[in-house]
Amino acid sequence: MALPSKRHSKTVKRIRRAAIKMKTPALSTCPQCKKMVRPHTACAFCGTYRGRQVLKIKLTKKEKKLRKKEEKEKKEK
Ligand SMILES: [Zn+2]
How many angstroms separate the alpha carbon of residue 63 from the centre of ligand 1? Predict the structure, then answer.
């Protein structure tokens, strides 16, 4: 089995690990509800994909109230 010929110093290890970081996910906007969605996936908020309804979204009472408010605000705009 291959072995490293030299031990990496603490500095080298720290420099390497400093470059490891979380990436921001690529996001696009849902054409239906204008929320941020991961590309090539169904919208978790309205359940549509490429203009078609593909998911049934079950809402709690709180979520229903929130969505009604948002729809009202959209209509006023
Ligand atoms: Zn949506």
Answer: 15
Question: Would you put residue 37 in left (φ > 0), alpha (ψ -120 to 50) or beta?
Answer: beta
pLDDT digits (tens, 9 = 90+) for 14-34: 999 999 999 888 999 999 888
**pTM, rounded to two decimals:** 0.55
pLDDT in tens, 44-76: 988 999 989 999 988 889 988 988 888 888 788
Measured in angstroms, how far is the CA atom of residue 34 from the centroid of ligand 1? 6
